Amino acid sequence: CQTFSGSWGYHRDETSWKSMPQLLELLIETVSKEGNLLLNVGPTSRGEFDYRAQERLEGLGKWMHANSRSIYGCTAAPEGFNAPERTLLTYNPETRRLYIHLIDYPMGSLRFDFADKVEYAQFLHDGSEIKFSKDSFSLPVLKPDVEIPVIEVFLKD
Questions:
Q1: What is the pLDDT, as a whole number, of residue 14?
Q2: Partner of 130 for a Cys bridge, out of 15, 86, 91, 121, CB 3.0 to 4.6 A?
Q3: Residue 127 pLDDT greater than 80, yes or no
Q4: Rounded mean pLDDT of the chain?
Q5: How far separated are the first and last CA of the chain, in Å rounded?
Q6: Is residue 21's pLDDT more than 90?
């Protein structure tokens, strides 16, 4: 259970609001450790959410619209899958898909150590294919216009 800011209720002068990247990383990390995240936000005395809370809720909704498959029904990655540097992994045991969340977008490629288990890979937000070799994914130089891009990995049976 976490808050959007440093307070459990509305506080007009609150200045410690979590950023969108922080909230997304919190959500993804929670799922990657087999948890569920409860985010608390307190309404103003007029019963409305503060504009900062609204901005973050809209941002979370936009990211989830494109990337919810990497969260819903997911849990920790199975043994033998090591998260590449500055990434978080989630896994859907029903679909047998691994999700690599790129917390810091790498320049051109992403090294990993489980290529023998990969059948196909794509960006989750637009379905565009990601080529891979024995030890790395070949990524576009420019980061996609997504707060935290996600690679959906189809695993071999």
A1: 80
A2: 121
A3: yes
A4: 94
A5: 36
A6: yes
Asked if 139 and 106 touch (Cβ cutoff 8 Å), the reply is yes
Q: Which amino acid is at 3?
A: T
Q: How buried is residue 118: exposed, middle or buried, by Cβ count under 10 Å (0-12/13-18/19+)?
A: middle
**Hey, is 59 helix, strand or coil?**
helix
Number of H helices and E strands in the chain, helices first, is 2, 8
In the chain, at which residue ranges do the beta strands (DSSP E only) sit?
2-3, 39-40, 87-92, 97-102, 109-111, 118-123, 136-138, 150-155
Alpha carbon distances (Å) from 9 to 2, 3, 120, 135, 138: 12, 9, 45, 47, 45
Q: 45 in helix, strand or coil?
A: coil
pTM of the model: 0.94
Residue 41 has a pLDDT of 87
Residue 82 has pLDDT above 80, yes or no: yes
- d(CA 4, CA 57) in angstroms, rounded, equals 9
DSSP code of residue 146: S
Residue 56 in tokens:
């973050």
